[in-house]
Design brief:
The structure is a homodimer.
Chain A (H helix, E strand, L loop, with lengths): L5 H7 L6 H12 L6 H9 L7 H13 L4 E6 L2 E5 L6 E5 L5 E4 L15 E12 L1 H5 L1
Chain B binds a DNA duplex through helix 4.
Chain lengths: 136, 136
DNA sequence: TTTTAAATTTGTAATGATTATATTTTATAT
DNA sequence: ATATAAAATATAATCATTACAAATTTAAAA
């Protein structure tokens, strides 16, 4: 995903590009580490001292309505966000708790059982120990 | 999964089969509807009036440690439990909020990117509208 | 440019699921 | 029967998220 200008991208999706919204969206596309609300808040509060956590929540919920971000629910009570809305899998390392992306082939599911169902979202995530942690 | 006797099954997995534990496990294998803690609690409280929600939590956490149930995290803040520990996918209907099972082929993932990673769990879930809800 | 209205952000309080802790009950062993 | 350990329970604490109201900013109109 190559987004030249976050503001334009937001506008294109019907979102008024306020400073907070631009910064939050930029944070998501620059840091592909699938951050939690708390991480986003702590990082951005450094440059926007008046930032409120409620704003981060509101903004992410707005982004989700407009379909420019997706939620990643791997762990209960640890909601993460992803600005890459294309279909891909996530691998969460239980050691370092990093979340990695990996490719997926859409038709590689056995979906005959779901004939007649309207599939709107596909989510795949694995858990285990990443290469890095295995080597150390 | 054909479990003749819940008590024996628990014992076999190193869990002392108390009344509460047996009932909770039986509930999971009889009702393959992937219930939430609240559902389990409300249903079983009918036959075990002294049942505490804490016990349901404790028991499910114990079951998870012993690997006889799995968590299904589709929605944040709606943790569901499944006594079928084999690999399969889940489809959650956003209309009726039912959760359906569907088969999955293990090797049908493109996992080359995860070479050198130790994969311990694989989760797949879809969201959309089920056949039933589409027809009505 | 001033005024007014609407949208956005913010702070605080409320909610709800889960966990922590202490007490009570039940089971087990001596 | 008594002592000890395990399990269940009730209550309080925690934490992420949402609700709500007030303050601020932005946009629009006069």
């Amino acid at each position: 995903m190559t987004i030249i200008n976050a503001g334009d991208y937001l506008k294109k999706h019907g979102i008024k590009p306020s400073l907070q919204r631009i910064r939050i969206f930029e944070y998501l596309i620059k840091n592909k580490n699938h951050p939690t609300v708390d991480t986003i808040f702590r990082e951005l509060a450094k440059e926007i001292p008046t930032l409120s956590k409620t704003t981060v929540y509101n903004t992410l919920n707005l982004f989700m309505e407009k379909n420019i971000v997706k939620v990643i629910t791997i762990e209960e009570n640890e909601t993460r966000y992803d600005a890459d809305t294309s279909l891909h899998g996530h691998f969460k390392c239980t050691e370092c708790s990093r979340v990695y992306d990996f490719d997926l082939d859409v038709p590689k599911f056995k979906e005959e059982i779901l004939k007649g169902f309207e599939i709107q979202e596909r989510h795949v995530y694995f858990k285990g120990i990443c290469k890095d942690c295995l080597l150390n």
